[in-house]
Design brief:
Blueprint (H helix, E strand, L loop, with lengths): L1 H18 L5 H8 L14 H26 L1
Membrane topology: Multi-pass membrane protein
Family: Belongs to the SecG family.
Keywords: Cell membrane, Membrane, Protein transport, Translocation, Transmembrane, Transmembrane helix, Transport
Length: about 70
């Protein structure tokens, strides 16, 4: 039963990670010398904030399930 839940959580985690917006523009601009706000504090808002929180929750759940499955064997 736990293996099936782990599989569902894994697929959900992959999907949520793919839905997030890329944050590589700042790194590329910093390396090429273009003007960038790499170190400016930008707060996530809206759907980005929701996706980040869902990713964190799914990641924690993934590790807890993996540990529980391993302890059960």
């Amino acid at each position: 039963m736990l293996q099936i839940i782990l599989l569902v959580v894994s697929v959900a985690l992959i999907i949520v990670c793919l839905l997030q917006t890329g944050k590589t523009e700042g790194i590329v601009n910093a390396l090429t010398g273009q003007s960038s706000n790499l170190f400016a504090q930008q707060k996530e808002r809206g759907i980005d904030l929701v996706l980040t929180r869902i990713t964190i929750a799914l990641g924690i759940l993934f590790f807890v399930l993996a540990i529980l499955i391993r302890m059960g064997n």
